[in-house]
Amino acid sequence: MVIAKISLIVLFFWLQVNFFIGKNGLYEYVQLYNKNLKKEENILNVLNRNKELLLEIQDWNTSDELKEEFARSKLGMIKKGETFYRIV
């Protein structure tokens, strides 16, 4: 009877250890859960950035002022008949 009690206690502690820190245990579950939350947050950030880029593309396709501003500031272009003055 004593051997049965001792073996049950050992079995209980062995199961507890495996449940908490063993392979596929609670510790690993919590780590994977936290990693999953970070990945989901990253995905949401990427989706939001994609929406912003799609809106920017739509602006580029519809706005002539945006194209003109880009041509003037980045490419150094001027309209016909304009005189360019560089102030040093």
TrEMBL record:
<keyword id="KW-0812">Transmembrane</keyword>
<keyword id="KW-0175">Coiled coil</keyword>
<dbReference type="GO" id="GO:0005886">
    <property type="term" value="C:plasma membrane"/>
</dbReference>
<keyword id="KW-0472">Membrane</keyword>
<dbReference type="GO" id="GO:0043093">
    <property type="term" value="P:FtsZ-dependent cytokinesis"/>
</dbReference>
<keyword id="KW-0131">Cell cycle</keyword>
<keyword id="KW-0132">Cell division</keyword>
<dbReference type="InterPro" id="IPR007060">
    <property type="entry name" value="FtsL/DivIC"/>
</dbReference>
<comment type="function">
    <text>Essential cell division protein. May link together the upstream cell division proteins, which are predominantly cytoplasmic, with the downstream cell division proteins, which are predominantly extracellular.</text>
</comment>
<comment type="similarity">
    <text>Belongs to the FtsB family.</text>
</comment>
<feature type="topological domain" description="Extracellular">
    <location>
        <begin position="22"/>
        <end position="88"/>
    </location>
</feature>
<keyword id="KW-1003">Cell membrane</keyword>
<protein>
    <recommendedName>
        <fullName>Cell division protein FtsB</fullName>
    </recommendedName>
</protein>
<dbReference type="Pfam" id="PF04977">
    <property type="entry name" value="DivIC"/>
</dbReference>
<feature type="topological domain" description="Cytoplasmic">
    <location>
        <begin position="1"/>
        <end position="3"/>
    </location>
</feature>
<keyword id="KW-1133">Transmembrane helix</keyword>
<dbReference type="InterPro" id="IPR023081">
    <property type="entry name" value="Cell_div_FtsB"/>
</dbReference>
<feature type="coiled-coil region">
    <location>
        <begin position="30"/>
        <end position="57"/>
    </location>
</feature>
<dbReference type="GO" id="GO:0030428">
    <property type="term" value="C:cell septum"/>
</dbReference>
<dbReference type="GO" id="GO:0032153">
    <property type="term" value="C:cell division site"/>
</dbReference>
